[in-house]
Sequence to fold (232 residues):
Amino acid sequence: MAAARKTSTKKYIAAFVLTLVVFSIGIFVGIFLEEARLKYSQQITLEEKVNLRSLQLQQNYIGSGLADCNSLHHILEQNINELTKKMSLIMDYQKKAVFNEKEFNLQLQDYFLTEIQFYLLSKEIDNKCKEDNVKILYFYDENKFETQGEILSYLKNKFGSKVLIFSLNSDFEQEPMIKVLLTSFGITEFPATVINNKVYQGHRGVKDLMKIICQEFDNKDIEAPEECAFLS
Fold:
């Protein structure tokens, strides 16, 4: 009987040790993966900062003839598209973060700041070059059932370089500049879009947004894509 108890106790101890080892390995792997994600996010943040500085320098040289407007518009759109893709990745990392949540929040804050800088730079470029696109500031909240983002992505695919979209999370309180923009535009309802400085609060469907965008092409004397010709 005593021998059976000893055997049972050894089994419990062995099971506990095995569980502890597996748990420790899981924590170690989790830390390793999160550190790798953090390192990668820091690398792509640096890349976007370099891209932004390069674009700012080219914009400054427009007047001296060392850069041309067509190239500047093309580079701006490329950088914004890349930033959007990478921001989605960082947001996914941030949601999964356990050990480095603060660091990932800082990375996300830096991305929102970079996106705002690109938006302001695009406005500066318009002062030196003829406008050839419609700019959309998109403010969203944490409503997972909202489809406004998908609609804007669809329109971006249809209009291509003729539309620039800058997406900002209205619930991200860590970055005060987002609050400044919301206040300056008088936005209190989400989702909200600001299209060439005109504010549209609440959800907008595909056809409604297409009409607004096409009207902006006409207002700005920008050559409208063929999709605008089919709107009634």
